[in-house]
């Protein structure tokens, strides 16, 4: 899919447990490898079925790189979004493949004052279509009322 830009500094805090716990005591600023491990833990925690999943992170450019094969386009997009919506990630380089080709979803950046009904009205012409957006963003969204400005959401066709 390519590169995806996100708003750095306003996403969710990366409090996930790293996939591999380092033996060294934690420093005040995590290393790029520790951050990559935590991002990997976030994606694996969604149980998206991505095989050969790896996540790299460059702390100088705030770029996260995703590799692996996703079982569906939806799984691929969810992995991109869960990593990109972390507070210190500014960009995601998607190098994943998809087992079965499917149409890509549109991405929408939440603005101040938005809610899922307002977004549904804008993109589908019907505010009552908000559950479609909510379902497309599960399990990253736990509640349709808990979205924040700068967050990027999947908007299925």
UniProtKB/TrEMBL annotation:
Residue intervals of the BON domain: 28-100
Keywords: Cytoplasm
Annotated Pfam families: BON, LysM
InterPro entries per UniProt: Bact_Kbp (IPR052196), BON_dom (IPR007055), LysM (IPR018392), LysM_dom_sf (IPR036779)
Domain LysM: 106-155
GO cellular component, one term: cytoplasm
Superkingdom, taxonomy of origin: Bacteria
Compartment annotation: Cytoplasm
SMART domains named in the record: LysM (SM00257)
NCBIfam families: PRK11198.1 (NF008399)
Gene: lysM
Source species of the chain: Acinetobacter sedimenti
Protein name: Potassium binding protein Kbp
Keyword Transport belongs to the record: no
Predominant place of localization: cytoplasm
């Amino acid at each position: 899919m390519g590169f995806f830009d996100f708003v750095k500094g306003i996403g969710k805090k990366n409090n996930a447990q790293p996939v591999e716990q380092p033996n060294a005591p934690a420093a005040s600023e995590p290393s790029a490898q520790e951050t990559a491990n935590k991002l990997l833990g976030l994606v694996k925690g969604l149980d998206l079925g991505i095989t050969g999943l790896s996540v790299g992170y460059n702390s100088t450019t705030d770029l996260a790189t995703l590799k692996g094969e996703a079982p569906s386009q939806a799984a691929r997009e969810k992995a991109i979004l869960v990593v990109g919506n972390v507070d210190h990630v500014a960009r995601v380089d998607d190098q994943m493949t998809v087992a079965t080709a499917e149409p890509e979803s549109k991405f929408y950046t939440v603005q101040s004052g938005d809610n899922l009904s307002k977004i549904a009205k804008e993109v589908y012409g019907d505010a009552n279509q908000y559950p479609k957006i909510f379902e497309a963003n599960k399990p990253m969204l736990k509640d349709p009322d808990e979205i924040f400005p700068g967050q990027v959401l999947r908007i299925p066709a």
